[in-house]
Amino acid sequence: MRIKRLAGVIAIAVMGTSAATASATNLLDLAHDADTDTLVLEVAYRGSHGDHPFSLDWGECKDYAFGTPHQIGAQLVDREFDDSGPTEFKQTLKFSLTGLECRPSKLTIRTSSGAYRTILVPEAQEAKAASHE
Q1: How many domains does the chain have?
Q2: Which of 21, 36, 59, 83 to pair with 131, CA 20 to 30 A apart?
Q3: Across the chain, which distance is largest between two alpha carbons, in Å?
Q4: 98 alpha-carbon distance from chain centroid
Q5: pLDDT tens digit string along 66-113?
Q6: Rounded (10°) CA dihedral 100, 102, 108, 110
Q7: Which domain, by its residues, includes 40?
């Protein structure tokens, strides 16, 4: 009897875990487009349609004495996280960095699945100069 109960608890836990990760967003690629001063992300997620709205929830800009002068993080948020459709989609997202004052910086983007990627974002003037070289 105890074994059946334990097996049932384990089965429920496994189903709950797979349901929670089914709608998780994965960050496939992260880049900075110097020509447009835009952050470009390629993401994959499951759902019923391929046009989920995404946003970035920005963290606080931090200064460090060593290495890159600034560090900042952002959480990638799927605004339709509860869309539990079975189809996997890929989407390219673009976010303007024009108003980002925390520069130059090491930027880390995190997802709901716990994945993250980090890139260096140059000063705004450096981004324009690099695109014309």
Answers
A1: 1
A2: 59
A3: 73
A4: 19
A5: 766 899 999 999 999 888 889 999 999 999 999 999 999 999 999 988
A6: -50
A7: 24-131
Q: In this structure, what CATH number is given to the domain that contains residue 126?
A: 2.60.40
Q: How many helices (H) and strands (E) does the chain have?
A: 2, 8
Rounded Cα–Cα distance for residues 27 and 116 (Å): 7
Count CA atoms closer than 13 A to 106's CA, side-chain side: 12
With tokens 């797979």, the residue in question is 18
Q: Are 93 and 54 spatial neighbours (Cβ–Cβ below 8 Å)?
A: yes
Tokens (6 digits) for 27: 């960050």
**Is 18 part of a structural domain of the chain?**
no
Six-digit token pair at 44? 């994959």
Indicate whether 13 belongs to any domain.
no
Q: Is residue 4 part of a domain?
A: no
User: What is the token pair recorded at 49?
Assistant: 């349609």
